[in-house]
Amino acid sequence: MPLIIYKFADGHTEEIEVSDEVAAAFAQLEKYEKKVERKETRRHVSLNLLMENGYDFSADDTDILDVLDKEEQEKSEWREERFRRQVLDDKKIEIFSLLTFRQADAYFRHKYLHIQKTEIARYLNVTEGAVRKLIKKAEANLQEYRLANEKEVKLLEAIFGSVL
Q1: If I label 109, which of 4, 37, 71, 85 is the partner at 20 to 30 A Cα–Cα?
Q2: Would the pTM of this model clear 0.70, i.e. be above it?
Q3: Which residues pair with 3 in a beta bridge?
Q4: What residue segments make up the domains of the chain, in order of their start?
Q5: Which value, to the nearest 10 degrees, does the dihedral of the CA atoms of residues 16, 22, 24, 25 take?
């Protein structure tokens, strides 16, 4: 009869004589436990690695309600910012729809990219005078919009900076 070494729950070990079937079952059980233990140790991940990847572990003295309030406030601020951006994007689309593609192209290349009118004319394959007219017409349309929506434009500029 085979002998197995059995470790009891209180920590002491003994050699016990058992039948062949029990010894085989015990060997399989030990093999399975070692496999599970190996899986468990492979799952352990360094806390430093988690913290570097942005996971935050709260201290024991941290109040969970404060943490939840902070998360809720951050979500609220994020929603507010997303709403502001959506309003601004909608407003920009509305403003851009006032201009034809060529007007918008010439106007924004000249005003924001600081490209000379002669270069814009070469790019658009038109005369410099035509570019001047496109830019003037774009400015007139934008000014007309600005006058018609003065309060709204001032509010948008106060919130987001220059819109027009």
Answers
A1: 85
A2: no
A3: 17
A4: 3-44, 64-160
A5: -110
For residue 133 the two structure tokens come to: 């007219």
Torsion of CA 27, 28, 34, 35, to 10 degrees: 160
- CATH 1.10.10.10 assigned to domain 64-160? The reply is yes
pLDDT in tens, the chain (164 residues): 788 888 888 888 888 888 888 888 888 988 988 888 877 766 666 677 777 777 776 666 677 788 888 899 999 899 988 988 888 788 778 777 888 889 988 988 998 889 999 999 999 999 999 999 999 998 888 888 777 777 776 766 776 666 55
